[in-house]
Amino acid sequence: MTIETLSTNRSFGGTQGVYSHASVETGTTMTFSVFVPDHAPGAKLPVVWYLSGLTCTHANVTEKGEFRRACAELGLIFVAPDTSPRGEGVPDDADGAYDFGLGAGFYVDATEAPFAQHYRMRSYVERELPGLIASNFAVDMSAQGIMGHSMGGHGALTISLRNPGRFRSTSAFAPIVAPAQVPWGQKALGGYLGQHRNAWSEYDACALIDGGARLPDLLVDQGEADNFLAEQLKTHLLEETCAKAEQKATIRMQPGYDHSYYFISTFMADHLAWHAERLK
Amino acid sequence: MTIETLSTNRSFGGTQGVYSHASVETGTTMTFSVFVPDHAPGAKLPVVWYLSGLTCTHANVTEKGEFRRACAELGLIFVAPDTSPRGEGVPDDADGAYDFGLGAGFYVDATEAPFAQHYRMRSYVERELPGLIASNFAVDMSAQGIMGHSMGGHGALTISLRNPGRFRSTSAFAPIVAPAQVPWGQKALGGYLGQHRNAWSEYDACALIDGGARLPDLLVDQGEADNFLAEQLKTHLLEETCAKAEQKATIRMQPGYDHSYYFISTFMADHLAWHAERLK
């Protein structure tokens, strides 16, 4: 489990690095970024995982997320994986669409050909990358939080719901809350998992909560001017599901905000403070 | 003087806009960005001009500069112009190099063919754009600050030094302090202005200070791990010039920091607070 350092830059009194490694799960070279605030020798810091949305790599949040000041102040390590396998031999959407295939792994382990071989983002993010991070960075693996945006919000919610006790804090920006009920999710889950809809429910936050999965609590920010709100995100489904299930949740609608990093960066420090409260 | 709105995004309790207009000075369509914090109807806010470095457009600082939180808290409007004319008929470097021509206007009014027609970034930034901003945004033009990075640090210093009293605050990240003495500057000033070196001095911060120009004070941050420090930036020349001229200046060398936006974003809030102190 060796990693290659692609770049490091000093920033906000810490080190922003970008790294790559040969992934066993995806069978490809995977790239990720890690921000590590300066800390005492031997100290281990809480870690927050950030899962990105459709079309993104590690780079979008690393460049535009505005997380470093808060992470440095709060003493949090911030890890941002890629959103899919990439490279020669990795199949893409048949029409090259942005919402399936490259940049759109949806944090599932695909079972359908030709995707099953490389599209193993669930196992990559749940198991392989945490092992790699634990052995290469000063992380306290007993203090993990997870967050994400859009498709990555879906990833954060479902990974946390499926692994009770592992994440002390879970939050999302504009998450896809019920992929089985919206076009993005139906295309992705159908393509990666096939049309047996019972296989979809472990990748659907609302279905998981309906099925009894619970989190200690949950923070979601959603822009009211988000073009994807009505058709793809349907935040109200999460609100209704949480209310029915008595799942504690803070779901905030933010007037005027859209789906972009201009929205995410605005509320990033809020989310990180919320994670830090639960990780310390 | 009409402007076209290319995009607006709500961010940090304000509006990040990108605009374009037909520039009289450059004879091209010019694009710029403006962040306006929410404010009381009829209020006018101080404005900080940010001039970008080689290869940049308005977009680099707009996406990576991490200025919006501080601008919103401090009530500052933030304007980021492009770094050169662009478009059909605008001549570029003969070899397509990054340090001359497109993306490298050096904030001069060119006098040499074929650049003199379009490369009028001095007049554009000093006169045309301020007029446009004053008539389209809620700016208090009696409270202006100016800052920039690298080539844009050179622009900020020289524009402020040539216009005494106009900017209440001036700062720079990793500025080119003496273009007449370094390869980037010699190529640009020679190419735009010709080899009559006496024409260069009004575009050289150290030469302007040597010649008697003064600012109330000055803030500069420079990364010690900046690859361009020794050959192109030569911060020590500014330190020596300011000491000799008794020009008040705070010039901070920052260990470990490089030339990137990871460096700029780290110290952006510091600079904006410094500007705000002088603009309120």
From TrEMBL, chains A, B:
It is an enzyme of class 3 (hydrolase). Gene3D superfamilies: alpha/beta hydrolase. GO terms for cellular component: cytosol. It comes from the Bacteria. Its EC number is 3.1.2.12. Belongs to the esterase D family. Serine hydrolase involved in the detoxification of formaldehyde. NCBIfam families: fghA_ester_D. This is S-formylglutathione hydrolase. It comes from Sphingorhabdus pulchriflava. The lineage of its organism: Bacteria, Pseudomonadati, Pseudomonadota, Alphaproteobacteria, Sphingomonadales.
